[in-house]
Amino acid sequence: MTDKSKDNLRQAALDYHKYPKPGKLEIRATKPMANGRDLARAYSPGVAEACIEIKDDASTARDYTARGNLVGVVTNGSAVLGLGNIGALASKPVMEGKAVLFKKFANIDCFDIELNEPDPYKLAEIVCSLEPTFGAINLEDIKAPDCFIVEKICRERMNIPVFHDDQHGTAIVVGAAATNALHVAGKKFEDVKVVSTGGGAAGIACLNMLLKLGVKRENVFLCDLQGLVYNGRELDMTPQKAEYAQGTEPRTLLDVIEGADLFLGLSGPGVLKPEMVAKMSDRPIIFALANPTPEILPDEARAVKPDAIIATGRSDYPNQVNNVLCFPFIFRGALDVGATEINDDMQIACVEGIAALARQTTSAEAAAAYQGEKLAFGEDYLIPKPFDPRLMGVVASSVAKAAMETGVAERPREDMAEYKKSLDGSVFKSALLMRPVFEAARTVTRRIVFSEGEDERVLRAAQAIIEETTDSPILIGRPEVIETRCERAGLKIRPRIDFEVVNPENDPRYYDYWTTYHTLMARRGVTPDLAKAIMRTNTTAIGAVMVQRGEADSLICGTFGQFLWHLKYVNEILGREGRHPVGALSMMILEDGPLFVADTQCHPEPTPEQIAETVVGCARHVRRFGLNPNIALCSHSQFGNLDTASGRNMRAALEILDSQPRDFCYEGEMHIDAAFDVALRERIFPDSRMTGPANTLVFANTDAASGVRNILKMKGGGLEVGPILMGMQNKAHIVTPSITPRGLLNMSAIAGTPVAHYS
């Protein structure tokens, strides 16, 4: 890297921390503070009621304060990253970063606390005094051996989890990586010889973890700057190092590395030389974790041992050993069951959960975050990526279960399956809202055909459908292309083995398909030759014909191309027997709950009849998600105050709706703010039939509807489920090109729900 590149990176990092607001954290209120009543509840006199409750029963602190979800990240800055003893103040950016990771990955709130206290006993005293504030303590960047002293005192005196992440977080991730590396190498913990460099906190903790996992102490050789740690050595020794003393004579790393199966480096750059690697066993495992420069670079190690399995602490090489895989989730599980400590069983449960997740198919979200990398279990993919959202559910639930089984959980969970669902729901924003849809879909097995079967998003959705539902995906595409892309994406599924494939270039059903299409379209200007060409090239039309012929139950298309282009063929082939496109409904999942928006795609300028039909369709589909529809007909006109086209259409649609009894709430025409603000609506139109804020907005044209949908998605952080094509009796749904694999999975559940469940 050139000096200019280094300067650019340095400035970019500084700008990240400085702009647009200094630091990486801020405090936000979770309750409204808009009037005198709010103030009286938040502070005097109302706050006294919460104080009295906690005084009478200390456990209620988690009910009335943030303590149950609050972690203190505490350091004295004596061993910060690779920077050494830079002091408490200079360590603050790191501690803020740790707090950000807690929030991002596990939704745990943090205060970072930097203390000017070098004495470990006084430091421990200060930390212990913080117990009333926090639900758990994360010790960070405290030098060895002081960190052992501080943690020991705090764990003995405090009745909340105390976890030194530099020790145990590193050890847990190393344990998970070692578990899978040995699996790949075909070796066992109890048989391997381990050579380690680095007798600091992390190094000792990693060795302790390896012993817990089955490594024999007599097979562990610990070296530091002075060489091998042996019995009788006095120079630069600690009680923790002495636990791993081997023999009675001085030896070098070169002396002890011969025949080693696992090298564990937590020391410094260049410590492990190529000639040392050459002396290791066949299929050696090398964890060179020094940062930023490892003990040996992967290319240097493989030059002498091509079959080496290598992990580093860097993100630009495969198998980055990163504590973020562990600490947010182990604290999440501990806090959720009110654990009084984080014990060995909880740590091993964390190891096993991380390791098992890596052996599964990579999540679509992780693949999107690490585009270009092959994320398939093997020597270059031993542990999951930090952005794999499944870590929360898998690891936190494993930790919580272990806490309960070992008797340290003061608030055990009765239903662990439900707890894991809630964890998944906190990560996958659509999970809880989609649950009733998935449950309804599981009552039957349906065949869902995907017209763009070669798209990686579709392949990942198909994998998830096979793993998580009872439905059967059918993919339209070239089998050899699908197989290559499945392999490249690290997916386990294979065409014609795990799912059916329709090959547009060569399928035995080609004659049946083009003749069916021609029969349907002969009086609409489609000749036999044109029908043949369409059934070779138009995968949306092929999928629709399959549904029409009863060979599939529903079609999903639209991962590329324009919505109305797909709709043309869907309507031509499936728009019969009472089916016709009513409108497209998008569910936008926002921070405060779901909001449905229609019609976002189908009718650019709908008639009053089409608007009324859209409202009825919305009510039916909103109920699929277990919600009561509260529908606002939106316009620039508000309750008749403007004589505009949209206002006239909305008023006419309202008359149509009012002409028959309806079993749902609707009102219009109105502005969007009136739809949400009950007080404003009552002031403008006191006799409104709507109560509460609207949860569904129906617009007078697709420009308005799709504009609102996109603003909510791009600027409001909304997650879209849909669009749901109403009126086609679940025979087809047309998605948009921005859809994700999870979005396709959600749409497959919607498509997989029998019409009887929501009609």
Structure description:
With 759 residues, the chain is an alpha/beta fold. 43% of the residues lie in helices and 13% in strands. The strands form four sheets. It has a six-stranded mixed sheet with strand order 7-6-5-8-9-10, with helices on one face. α19 (431-441) crosses α31 (741-751). The radius of gyration is 31 Å and the shape is globular.
Q: Tell me the overall shape.
A: globular
Q: Percentage of helical residues? A: 40-55%
- Beta-sheet strand percentage? 5-15%
Quote the average pLDDT. Answer: 92
- The rounded Rg comes to 31 Å
Computed structural class = alpha/beta
Output the number of helix runs: 31
Please report the distance between the alpha carbons of the first and last residues.
Answer: 63 Å
Largest sheet: 6 strands, mixed
Q: So what's the oligomer here?
A: single chain
Number of strands: 21
Which strands sit side by side, in order, in the main sheet? 7-6-5-8-9-10
Low-pLDDT runs of 5+ residues are none
